[in-house]
Amino acid sequence: MALMEVRNVTFAYRDKPVLKDVSVEIGEGEVVTLLGPNGSGKSTLLKATIGLIRPGQGTVRLAGRDISSIPQKELARQIAYVPQFHRSAFPYRVFDVILMGRMPHKTFFFRYSQEDIDIARTVMERLSITHLAGRPYTEISGGERQLTLIARALAQGASIFVMDEPASGLDYGNQLKLLEHITALSGEGYTFIKSTHSPEHALWIAHRAVMIRKGTIIADGRCDDVVNSETLLQLYSTRVKVVRLNGSLRVCVPEMLKDNGAEEGTGRQPMFVRTGTSRR
Amino acid sequence: MREGLVIAGLACALVLAVLISLVLGKYPVGIEDVCGFFLWKAFNASVNLSVDRQLLENILLNIRLPRIMAAVFVGASLSISGTAFQAMFINPLVSPGILGVLAGASFGAALGMVLSKSWFFVQASCFLFGFMAVAAAVGIARFYKGNSIILLILGGVISGALFTSLLSIVKYLADPYNQLPAIVYWLMGGLTLVDAGTIRSTAIPVVAGIGLVVSLSGYLNVLSMGDEEARAMGVPVERIRIILIVIATMLSAITVMLAGMVGWVGLIIPHISRMIVGPDNRVLIPVSALVGALYLVAVDDVSRLLFTTEIPLGIVTSLVGIPFFAVVLKRAGRGWS
Asked: Are residues A160 and A54 in the same domain?
């Protein structure tokens, strides 16, 4: 049985339909990547899976239970959410931000216990960010902030991570490090549902890709099967070639670059060089 | 550890400030008489006092202590409400009056002064309209289907504006020889009218309210990360927010009841406290209550002793607060984008 089951979910903000009859099943330990252009409904689908929005029609089930019937706290102990945008008016210490992850384990009037503090320390060690503990959360880099949020999700004790464009705003190196962390955690049995703007991120670390366009799923399956020129053209209206490098790794190459003469042996001057010299 | 020391240190400083304030005043009473008097009162200790006990009892217990306690209550209440609101509304420039409670309470008190001579009636009306103004703000937010932060703030702006203009009507209609000066003077803020009875009746709600905010302070960090994140961490956002709004409204309405309009305390004390202990609300909330109390006790001493006639408290807090805030603004803006 699927760990999480989104069945026939329809949702509209006011009169604007965002999700139309969407169904997805997610198995335990899977890394599922949502791909789709801006405004396609990726974020909304993610929010529906964690109960932040209630679908107009359809159900979301977690291990067979309708999530609208699961108390908020209990749900938070199983699913953690790493949001896309982050409001941070106050420079809390990184350690205090990670401690917040213990909230779903506390009673109404609560104080963090030694156990909570130990758990927060352990997850920081696990992600090697112990050195950040005392730093203000507003002053660390984007990559460190993303790791802090993952640490908080781990402290939450959840086994399912829902991440809305976790790589956006990170530099190239930090994007790759993030993917590495996700791969490592998924190897330990954590389930990831994430959205991204980069099809390569799906190809590199996801088991499955779910492609959404205008609120409808147009493809769902193993990345190798569904991420290809046709589906990417449908999603993004640009021609992209998916090229297999030696072995199993695959990369996306925009065809536009090829047409501009980047290919060898055509005799044409590469466009970049030409514009570069004319500006001199 | 360090936080514990700061809190303990501030608590000692507050006790000291209260004792010193008991000494200060027109009638000279020495610190040894003050201490001796309280030892005698509390433990029935046999002490030698250089002033008549009946006179001491009158000066200390009936005149000075109620006023000092009022300063403690007002300072602590305004600062703690301000700190809680700043975290809750994710905005370091928010003050306790953001939902209209101060405007509502002022209107209520002015209306009471015009309609009745009974001080109790004035206080009751003040308290009631403070709550009504906030209820109107929350109601407006609810009407537009939400208690999202921005709707609440807009509701508060509308409600505050409404009660401010209602206050103008009351002022306009008030008898210009007796009632109007009373209203205007009272709106400047001051602790002259405080009596022991009022302090006794407000002590329980103030202490309970402050205690509740302190015990809920752990939620404030999460609330300031935004509604969705807080909800995803299992926090019942709406419920916690409404509870905190009700407590803060009660505390703020009581301050208007005790002291009229005392401006700026709820805005600057949270910032000063944040400079001392950082932004973690679990520590910041109790610290801001103590710093606020300390500040207002000191300012009230200044306002009653500096000149032969009293300067209204609200004027002093504003005069101290405005330049301070101008300096602090740079820091406050950091990380808020």
From this structure: yes
